[in-house]
Amino acid sequence: MSRYVEPQTVERGGFRISVPDSWWEFDVRPESRDDSIRKMVNERIRAVPEMAEHRDVLVAFLQRSAREAWESGAVYCGCMAESFGGEVPITASVTVSLVGARTSDGTILPTDPAAIVAQLKPRIAKREGDAWRKVTTVDIPEVGVAARTHGIEDIEIPPDNRTVRAVLMQTFIPVPGQEGKVALVAGSSQVLDLADSFFDIFDAVTSTFRFA
């Protein structure tokens, strides 16, 4: 879907991932993200003037994505916002979070993909338009097998616990040598009509994930 297909590789503490070079990537820290986003939008509009009419929509989307990424503990957030002649740009995001899982009594949960799959629950849509979720595993080159969910889900957004319906793919990649910790690569978009295309995009991006 992106008009520019050359990849850009981003490296953070302990991992790297590649996305198309037309995607936006920025500092998600509250003290710097708004200025960073405004500068990036201005630079992109200078390069692609036809996006100028979408300036306010782009800024709002990117600021919301950065805020939600920060609140969810993400260490990386990449976004796409492409204009294909419609009234609003097509938008999506991919985040990477390093998370640990424990029970209420502090017991470390297993990060083996089969164990994660056993804990995740698929969801079947009872009628058209319902949310749904499939649970599988995927083999990531140079990384190994990881648990994955994908579907149309109602996502809870902190801190006010509101929900939005979105295309969502989550891949849980065990972190080598760190008991109970996984790298969670999550791709999401609220453009539900393009779900299949976004599943392909999120799968392609996730397949580039490597531990550094």
Name the features:
disordered N terminus; 10 strands; three-stranded antiparallel beta sheet; seven-stranded antiparallel beta sheet; Protein Transport Mog1p, Chain A; alpha+beta; 212 residues
Short description:
With 212 residues, the chain is α+β, with helices and mostly antiparallel strands.
Number of helices: 4
What is the C-level CATH assignment? Answer: Alpha Beta
| Structural class category | alpha+beta
Estimated radius of gyration: 17 Å
Q: Strands of the largest sheet, in order across it?
A: 3-4-5-9-8-7-6
Kindly identify the CATH topology: Protein Transport Mog1p, Chain A
Helix content: 10-25%
Series of secondary-structure elements, N-terminal to C-terminal: EEEHHEEHEEEEHE
Report the count of strand segments: 10
Strand proportion, as a percent range, falls in 35-45%
Mean of residue pLDDT values: 86
Shape: globular
| Gap from first CA to last CA | 28 Å
Name the CATH homologous superfamily.
Answer: Mog1/PsbP, alpha/beta/alpha sandwich
What characterizes the major β-sheet?
A: 7 strands, antiparallel
Known CATH architecture? 3-Layer(aba) Sandwich
Instruction: Indicate the low-confidence ranges by residue numbers.
Output: 1-5
Number of domains: 1
Can you put this structure into words, describing what you see?
It is a single chain. This protein is α+β, with helices and mostly antiparallel strands. Helix content is 24%, strand content 38%. Strand 4 and strand 5 (90-100) form a beta hairpin. Helix 1 runs antiparallel to helix 2 (55-71). The protein starts with 6 loop residues before the first strand and ends with a strand.
